[in-house]
């Protein structure tokens, strides 16, 4: 997936395997980009994978890959904005200055029912035919121990809709607060097939047996696949690089010998960029 500002249809789209997502926006500070892990930051501390370390979100390959799967957007205003619930009432607090001259709703936030609030986003993301946009919570929501990260309500937007005029967020619980800080990511977009054309059905016995055999072989091979990478966290959980190395090998990104631990242990070794 390639993210770029709007250009003429057909320009430079010959890049094989690269889907284009074009954008236009009123607030440049939204700065849409492919989601990146922030280490140190919301993706965890730069603690190496070694005995005594506390496990970090970026240590988990499935989480890291999921977190980098979409497009993140950033809070574009200069002043912090807070949303809280007190005595059952939604409180919106922030200084946005004088309204702009383009007749936008101002301030750009307002209550929406009794359990939600909206943000006038004014962002247009155009995907290629056959795809749709799903707005969702930013992955830092799931790593935030302060519970102050805004919670975007999922929404599926079709390609033909020309502008995301507003986004909906769930209100914080009583006594809680959501904080929008300048330059912080607050939501993300995933690019999905426009229609969920799949059917759910149980596996045939032969296929189920094959999957079970694969599972057992991986489990029994952990002592060799991940032996040199095994470590014990400060919470007494045992980890190794079995999944990481299999995933890398299937992508063609791991040489025949294991990745050196100095690379594997570092956030930089996670291909964040």
What is the typical, i.e. mean, pLDDT? 87
| Shape, per Cα inertia axes | globular
How many distinct helices?
Answer: 4
Q: Tell me the structural class.
A: alpha+beta
Number of strands: 17
* Whole-number count of domains: 2
Gyration radius, to the nearest Å?
22 Å
CATH class of the largest domain reads Mainly Beta
Q: CATH homologous superfamily of the largest domain?
A: Deoxyuridine triphosphatase (dUTPase)
Order of helices and strands: EEEHEEEEEEEEEEEEHEEHH
Largest sheet: number of strands, sense, barrel closure: 5 strands, antiparallel
Query: How is the largest sheet built, in terms of strand order?
Result: 3-4-15-10-12
Low-pLDDT runs = 7-14, 254-273
Helical residues, percent: 10-25%
User: What's the architecture of the largest domain in CATH terms?
Assistant: Distorted Sandwich
User: Which fold name is given in CATH as the topology of the largest domain?
Assistant: Deoxyuridine 5'-Triphosphate Nucleotidohydrolase, Chain A
β-strand percent reads 25-35%
Distance between the termini: 14 Å
């Amino acid at each position: 997936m390639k993210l770029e500002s709007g250009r003429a249809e057909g320009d430079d789209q010959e890049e094989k395997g690269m889907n284009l997502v074009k954008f236009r926006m009123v607030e440049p500070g939204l700065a849409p980009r492919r989601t990146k892990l922030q280490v140190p930051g919301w993706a965890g501390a730069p603690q190496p994978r070694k005995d005594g370390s506390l496990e970090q979100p970026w240590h988990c390959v499935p989480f890291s890959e999921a977190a980098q799967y979409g497009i993140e957007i950033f809070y574009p205003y200069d002043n912090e904005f807070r949303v809280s619930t007190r005595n059952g009432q939604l409180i919106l607090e922030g200084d946005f200055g004088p309204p702009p001259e383009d007749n936008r709703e101002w301030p750009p936030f307002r209550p929406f029912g009794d359990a939600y609030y909206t943000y006038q986003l004014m962002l247009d993301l155009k995907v290629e035919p056959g795809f749709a946009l799903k707005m969702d919570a930013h992955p830092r929501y799931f790593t935030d121990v302060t519970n102050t990260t805004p919670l975007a309500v999922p929404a599926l937007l079709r390609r033909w809709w020309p502008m995301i005029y507003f986004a909906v967020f769930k209100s914080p619980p009583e006594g809680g607060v959501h904080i929008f800080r300048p330059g912080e990511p607050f939501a993300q977009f995933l690019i999905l097939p426009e229609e969920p054309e799949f059917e759910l059905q149980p596996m045939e016995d032969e296929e189920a047996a094959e999957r079970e055999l694969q599972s057992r072989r991986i489990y029994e091979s952990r002592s060799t696949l991940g032996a040199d990478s095994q470590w014990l966290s400060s919470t007494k959980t045992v980890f190794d690089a079995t999944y990481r190395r299999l995933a890398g090998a299937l992508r063609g990104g791991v040489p025949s010998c294991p990745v050196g631990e100095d690379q594997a242990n570092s956030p930089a070794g996670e291909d964040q960029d």
